[in-house]
């Protein structure tokens, strides 16, 4: 990547940042799910629901983060394709 491309916004860095955000969100979801399960197991009352929500968070959290980040990346892929079409027509 050349500095000129970076300064003219010809090269997008946001897809890389979105990938990092995905790993962060997935890690937070997994950590939250594990904490809920541990708190549910050690709870005196109502722990079953905490374990249930912990399992849901473990599974659905990373999937939700992936879908959200993929939708954002699709916008950048559309931009890239449109830019390449625009360059071909010049």
Radius of gyration: 20 Å
Alpha plus pi helix count: 3
Shape annotation: elongated
What is the number of E strands? 0
- What portion of residues is helical? over 70%
Low-confidence stretches: none
Q: Main beta sheet: strand number and arrangement?
A: none
Order of helices and strands: HHH
For the terminal residues, how far apart are their CA atoms? 23 Å
Average pLDDT level: 90
Structural class: mainly alpha
In terms of DSSP E residues, the strand content is under 5%
Care to give the gist of this entry?
The protein is mainly α and 90 residues long. The chain has helices at residues 3-7, 14-42, 47-89.
Give a verbal description of the structure:
Helix 2 (about 15-40) runs antiparallel to helix 3 (about 45-90). By secondary structure, this protein is mainly α. Helix content is about 85%, strand content about 0%. The protein has 3 helices and no strands. The protein has a domain at about 50-85. The chain has helices spanning about 5, 15-40, 45-90.
């Amino acid at each position: 990547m050349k500095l000129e491309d970076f300064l003219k916004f010809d090269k997008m860095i946001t897809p890389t940042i979105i990938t990092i955000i995905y790993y962060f969100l997935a890690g937070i979801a997994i950590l939250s799910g594990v904490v809920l399960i541990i708190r549910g197991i050690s709870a005196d009352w109502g722990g079953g629901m905490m374990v249930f929500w912990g399992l849901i968070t473990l599974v659905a959290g990373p999937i939700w983060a992936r879908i959200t980040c993929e939708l954002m990346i699709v916008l950048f892929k559309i931009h890239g394709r449109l830019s390449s079409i625009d360059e071909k027509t010049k």
